[in-house]
Amino acid sequence: MSDSGEQQAAADQAVAAEPATVPRHGRLPKHGAASTYLKLAASVIAVLAVAATSIAAYAAVDLVQSIKPGTELEDEHLLAGVPDIGAMEGGLSFLLVGSDKRPADGSFGDPEEDSAVLNDVTMLLHISQDHSHVEVVSFPRDMIVPVPECPDPVDPESGPLSSMSGVPLNSVLGHGGLGCVVSTISQLTGVPITVAGVVEFNGVAALSEAVGGVEVCLADRVDDDYSGLHLDAGTHSISGYEALAFLRTRHGVGDGSDLGRIASQQAFLASLARTLQSDGTLSDPVKLYSIAKAMLSNMELSNALQNPTTLVSIARTLADVDLSKIAFVQYPTEYSDDRTRVLPAESAEAVNAALQADQPLVIDPTAIDNSEFGTVADPAAPPADGSAEAPPAEASAPPTAPLPGDVTGITGDTVRCAKANEG
């Protein structure tokens, strides 16, 4: 029998099998654990049933084989007994960590000399309880934070790693792994974080390929030899390593700081949200399979995300959220006296309180225009004539206070353009 025939037969057996519950904190299945593979395959096939049978069967087996070892999080027990994100009480908080660890093949410099295990990107995705709004909060890598006690990811039996104070956020991944970054952000914001993942350079490139590319806007030509980004002014559809270069560029945009890079990343993510909703990706099982495979193959995911159906459920939840209710917010900070680090600003408490209360983060749309590290409005967009009326607020929606004016960000329906670093 051919490989595809064997995979089809295995998938057919899985569909006919009694449904079973995958242990929530279980280890990854070892080679030869056929029953666990078949149960996972059955769950994926159920999600992908609207696709052609042969594609769904292949996807099920291929996804299970793509899973990488996971990390158990302190608060992931809150997901117990929940079949999917659509039925979840209390919404979901997902921490995405971007590591600057260099690939072993040397494609981004000597992995021994140029690499460090640093969480240069730390973002919290919060889906509200009723799925009416979504927040993505970016935390500056140089922000000084306290770090709680964390389990030692190398030797868990040796006891917890000591707590720390006054350390840069991007040092936490190397100190205590993904779980420690999660505990640090959870302590900082007061928000339980149930799922998380780490992605490295090649993974970012693969994920951008999986979604079919993202359109970005540049107000000026950007040349950054550090990240490898070289793009003319205007609009470009980027993917793969070009998308990675755009997301990494710091010296080439804004004021050359990580805060300027966050503004560009937010413009990229807003465009990504528009793309995923407009082309039907989030309701297309075959496209969702491609994204899920890229995530499982290229990310270290916490244990609760090891089930591919969870990834699909999260994606489908995002499909119907109004773009104007998807907010990309930079965690508010202020510079230290020597301007080498940043500290949480007083207004950070307003962000924390809204997240804790499951309230939308309402941004002053002019705040980013007044920021030295922000992006700029799309020069090609027609000027607003001021005649459009704001839609009436829903009668059942509670009033939400806007965030202080120093909290910057954009919403998913906003087009912003990266501006070149004049220095």
UniProtKB/TrEMBL annotation:
InterPro entries: LytR/CpsA/Psr_CW_biosynth (IPR050922), LytR_CpsA_psr (IPR004474). NCBIfam families: lytR_cpsA_psr. Keywords: Membrane, Transmembrane, Transmembrane helix. It comes from Agromyces fucosus. The keyword Metal-binding does not apply. It comes from the Bacteria. Residues 119-277 form the Cell envelope-related transcriptional attenuator domain. The chain crosses the membrane at residues 37-61. Belongs to the LytR/CpsA/Psr (LCP) family. This is LytR family transcriptional regulator. Residues 7-20, 374-398 have a biased composition (Low complexity). Residues 1-28, 372-413 are annotated as: Disordered.
